[in-house]
Amino acid sequence: MTARFALCALAACLPSLAVAQECADPDTLIADAERDVVSFYLTDATRYADQAVAALACSAPAQPTTVARLFNALGVIRLYGGDTEGAASAFRDARAIDAETWNEDYGEQALTLRQEASPTEGQPKASLSFKGGSPDSWLTIDGTEVEWSLGDPVQVSPGLHVVQSGTGALSTFAKVVDLQPAASSLLQLPGEQADIVHTPTESPVPPAASPVWLHLAGGLSGAIGVSREVAVDDGTRREPAGKLFVPVELGAGLQSGRAWVRAVGGAAPILGGSWLYSEDAATWHGTPVALSARLDVGVTVDPVHLGVGSGVIWPGRIPVLAQAIVPLANTGVDLELHAGVRLATARSAEPTVAVLLSYRLR
Questions:
Q1: Are 293 and 312 in contact (CB under 8 A)?
Q2: Which end of the chain is more exposed for a tag (fewer CB within 10 A), N or C?
Q3: Is residue 338 part of a domain?
Q4: What dihedral angle (degrees, nearest 10) is formed by the CA atoms of 81, 85, 91, 93?
Q5: pLDDT at 330 (0 to 100)
C-alpha cells in the first residue's frame, strides 16, 4: 500500500464531500478546549478535546501544528487535574512535534513543566501495526505522512500520537494512542468508504460553544453602616447598622483568553430591617429589597479569576468591589468572594463583603 495523497475523481470524492459538510473543524474545537482549560473548566475542555479527535476522523489530514496544540491542551487538562507526570508527557510529545507551538495563556506553571519534560531519546521505540484499510489508503502519524503496509509495524517514539488514515482528500479514521516504551498497538482501519463507522451522521459532533455565558448567582452579604430608624408613610422603619442581606444575580459574561467581563443585575432582600431612602431631608421611605446593576472586569490567573466591579444600587449606593472567583473542581459552580465599600449618596461609606455561589451556563 502507498501513503501518497492524490486528487480523486469527482465521482469517487462525492461520499467524502458529503461527510465534510457535516464534519466539525478540529482546529476550532481545539481552540474551544484551549479557552476552557485556561478558565479552569476541565470538563468542558476535555469534551472539546475529545470532539476534536472525533472530527479528525472526517477531515483533511491534520497539520503537525494542530496535533501539537491538541497535546498541549491535553497537558494542561492533566496538569490542572492533578496528573503532573501525564502533563509533562503530553507537553514533551507536543514539543517533539512542533517546538514553536505554545499558548502563552497557559501560564508559567505549565510552561516550566513543558521546558523541564524529559525527551524520549534513548528509550526503546514503540510500534504500531494495522489491520484493514484499502489499497489506496494513506496514513499519517502526528500530521506527517508515513509509508506503511499490512504486517509491517511502524516504529514510533513512546508517548502520545495521533493516527489518521483515509482515502482521497479526507480521513476516515483517527485515534489518539498513548504508548509505553517497547509497547505495541494494533489498530483496525476501516475498509472502503461505504464501511466507515466514524461518520458524523452516526456520532454527531456538537457545535462549538460561544465564549459568552449566562451568569446565575446567589449567596449572603453584609455591610456595616449607620443605624437609622425613621417614620415613614405606613409606620416606623429601621435600617440596622450591621446589615445582612441575600443577593441574587443574573447577568452575562464574555471570556477572551485570560480577560473577562460581565454585566450583572441583581436584587438583595435585607434581613431584619429595611433599606431607607429619602426624596428630601424630611421625607423617608423604606423598601425590603435593594436593586442593583454592576459591571465586572477581570483576568484569569490559573485557576482563579480576579476582578473588580462597580455600578449602582437603589436606594442610593455605589459599590466598588474586589472579586476572587474560584472554580469548584469540575462542578461548573464557582465560589465568589467580594470585598469593598458601598459609597452612599446620603450617608457615610459602608464596608461590605459577600460570599456567592455562581454558575456559568453556556
A1: yes
A2: C
A3: yes
A4: -130
A5: 61
Is the model's pLDDT at 163 over the cut of 90? yes
Cα(60)–Cα(170) distance, integer angstroms:
5
Give the pLDDT of residue 34. 92
**Residues in CB range of 124: below 8 A, 6 or more apart:** 158, 181, 182
In which domain, by residue range, is 185 found? 10-195
ω into 315 cis (within 30 of 0): yes
**Residue 347, domain CATH:** 2.40.160
Indicate if 217 and 187 belong to the same structural domain.
no
Verify that 188 and 246 share a domain, yes or no: no
User: CA–CA separation, 343 vs 318, rounded Å?
Assistant: 5
Model-level pTM greater than 0.70? no
**233 or 287, greater pLDDT:** 287
Name the band, by pLDDT with cuts 50, 70 and 90, for residue 316.
Answer: confident
Read off the pLDDT of residues 36-52 as tens digits, 9 standing for 90 and up: 888 888 888 999 999 99
Q: State how beta strands 126-132 and 184-189 pair.
A: parallel
How many residues does the structure list for the chain?
362
Find residue 334's DSSP bridge partners.
327, 358
- Whether 203 maps to a domain, the answer reads no
Rounded Cα–Cα distance for residues 109 and 37 (Å): 14
Number of domains in the chain: 2
